Amino acid sequence: MFRGRNEGVLQLSLNADPQFDEPPKESHGEQIIIDHLGLRLNNAPADSWRKGVVSWTWRIKVLMHLETELMGTVRERRRR
């Protein structure tokens, strides 16, 4: 897997919502962040900005960290 990824043949990524063929409006990870912060996102003027921040936080900060951590764990187990 890692060789294929390094050679550009494979793309490995973590799917946080495997039960859906198409991603839902908010991913499970985004919903966890929304619940944790106690946000109520309706159609208030700032809600679209908040949704964007939650989406960015999930995709760029949390998901990338989880993918990196998972790939590192798999790589370590492979070396044993």
UniProtKB/TrEMBL annotation:
Residues 1-26 are annotated as: Disordered. Residues 1-77 form the Tex-like central region domain. Pfam families: Tex_central_region. InterPro entries: Tex-like_central_region, Tex-like_dom_sf. This is Tex-like central region domain-containing protein. The lineage of its organism: Bacteria, Pseudomonadati, Pseudomonadota, Gammaproteobacteria, Enterobacterales. The gene is yhgF_2.
